Amino acid sequence: MKYSVFFTGLILGMLLLSSGCKKHTEDMVEGTWEFVNVANIEAPHTIEWVFEDGNLRIYHRSKANPQSITLRDTGFYILESSPVRTTIRLLNTSNSLWNNHWDVVTLDSSFLILHMDIPGGVLFKEFIKIQ
Predict the structure, then answer these.
(1) What is the pLDDT of residues 64-80, one digit of tens each?
(2) Global pTM?
């Protein structure tokens, strides 16, 4: 009897903890993130990913004329969070390679780093939050 009460309490506690963490993580992901393009720091444009209510929009913004912004892609995202791992699953983007589970390596109010293993390598995407 003692063990069943203990395990029931433990399971309820874990469910409450994970649901609270997920909401906090969702709040942190939502917003506009600027891609850090380490491969081409002299690119004529920046790339912005906007996560909002399960929708993903990807824009290119001209560095020469920051008011010039072009929608490049759209899709959906699903945030999956547990006490040990958080992933963002991308769906319906035009880049089929991206339509997969991305591990969230870092997420705070300023930085987002995503990682995904692919055949023959690894993809990393680093972002700075701008809104």
Answers:
(1) 999 999 999 999 999 99
(2) 0.79
What is the full DSSP assignment across 59-120?
EEEESS-TT-EEEEEEEEEEEEE-SS-EEEEEES-S-GGGSSEEEEEEESSSEEEEEEEETT
Extract the tokens encoding 25: 């993580």
Residue 13 three-state SS: helix
Distance CA 108, CA 110 (A): 5
Q: Which residue has the tokens 């433990």?
A: 10
Tens-digit pLDDT profile for residues 76-104:
999 998 878 899 999 999 999 999 999 99
